[in-house]
Amino acid sequence: MALTALLAMVRKDLRLFMSDRRAVIVAFAVPIFIGAFIGSITGGNTREGRPRVNVAIADGDNSAVSQAIVEAARADENLNVTVTTEADARDRVEKGAIAVGAIVPQGFGDGSISALREQNGTRPELEILYDPSRTIEVGLVQGVLTQHIMQAITRAVGVPRPQLPFGVSTAAVTARNAPYAGYNSYAHSFAGMGIQFLLFSALNLGIEMLVERERGLWARLRSAPISRFTIVGGKIASITIISLMTLLVSFGFAMIMFKVRIAGSLTGFLAVSIACSMMAAGFGLLIAALGNSPKTARGVSTLASLVMVMLGGAWVPTFIFPKWMQQVTLVVPVRWAVDGLDATTWRGLGLTSAIVPTLVLLAFAAVFTAIALVRFRWEEA
Amino acid sequence: MLEIRNVRKTFGSLVAVDDVSFTVEPGRLTGLLGPNGAGKTTTVSMIAGLTRPERGSVLVHGQPLSGDTDPLKRKIGLVPQDLALYDELTARDNLRYFGALYGLAGQALATAMQAALTLVGLADRAGDRVKTFSGGMKRRLNLAAGLLHDPDILLLDEPTVGVDPQSRNAIFDNLEELKRRGKALLYTTHYMEEVERLADRIVIIYNGKVVANDTLSGLYAGATPGGAKSLESVFLTLTGRSLRD
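Output (structure tokens, whole complex):
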């Protein structure tokens, strides 16, 4: 009889979830939209080439040297060059349309050649304009242009094949035996948003338990001859299934539309996903146990979940956090979920990379559920 | 069939129910009356197993009710004061869920659902969502959900609140039918005329204690030397005229 009741609870919760259009949209469409947005602005799919920095170059010199600089910049795989006027370049940077503008002043070619020959002459200045909110791109553009300027000037003074006295090789490092491995910012953004909205779904279902209490449905449930463990088991099962659906639908969409691949262990990916959903189910139960009313529980739990996803690296990767914060956030369950999903998707790592995140998430699920069981108000007045 | 024996329940310093005893017999409806905060709902909650009495016991067919999973709970059906239904689900899906909580499945569940829906006159609306129902229809479905597992004892906590006279009358007809089938009914309400019409026995609770337990005619005769003219006057005599919060 316990199994009949448990299955009925799960079936009922799934029907209720599917009948709530708002809940379905929040669970499925919103994470896809936000995941796609964040993925696109944080790099896209780098297996299709590294992202380029947009730069506007104004050639006020129009000499052989300056033209060679512009051509070399255009051919550079790190830059996406627009040749324009000084006023337009300044205007674009000012309005934030591009991060960096470079002004090659009149006489730059001749001036730099003579400065190189005489060593003590007046040096012409290349003017770099940049958006103060995007300082990382300035360094890159400055370095790349310096290289091209040096090559153009040395060629102009007669060095037949000017080149740097050393070579540089770069390699994106992911698992060696995972053919689909490679950074895809959509893999991270969809993991993050999937987890965020998985938590929202779980919280909503937890809060629904408080609504059920207010509406007398809890009294009807408790008057039936079923144990507390069956009730909790049914809730955990239904919340886990709905949370898992939220995550898997998001990832499915990302796989189809943005070429996200589970480059590592599929078993590991599923283990982390299921453990994360169970953690969310435990968290939902905890909210139901600690909340006095749906209204207050909704406010507190939304804040708590937003803090969790923020500190867990669901919005931005944790490697950009300060060192101390990277350590502190290990106590946030979302951090383990994001790391586990990153490991099994774009990093292409094997099952062993998912074991620790899975176990930690299951431990969080157990702790949340245990506290909920202890604190739950089982008796009706 | 149902015997409440010396039950007591406190919430902190508040004594909600104190040494309450009464019985409910098969084929009889017992009205449980009392002003707000008298202890009616707490008493019903203890009978339904929602809360445990600190002292005393609830006996079903002579056996004490104990624990969440006690099979004796199958003998009891609860019709809560709230409309304990899922508005977004159909009437059939609501009953399917509530029936499964009592272990009903397959053909047995289908038969029970059909019988309950037919009794309350909602068989033709089984596939409609509850949110499309009127208040009276929801009250009748609330009753059907409590009956689904064919309990011997039915606890009705203000089952006619907010319904029109037609639906109230339909519910009364249902209760008369259930009495004929031998069910023991415990009915709490604030509507004196309902108890006057339906109850075979009336228990009045005041400040957590039973202050009267008799038939309607017995209450009339015992209230004043000359006899009372209405149940309301008996009630006000026993429980006072001061306002309750």
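Residues 2-44+184-375 of chain A form one domain.
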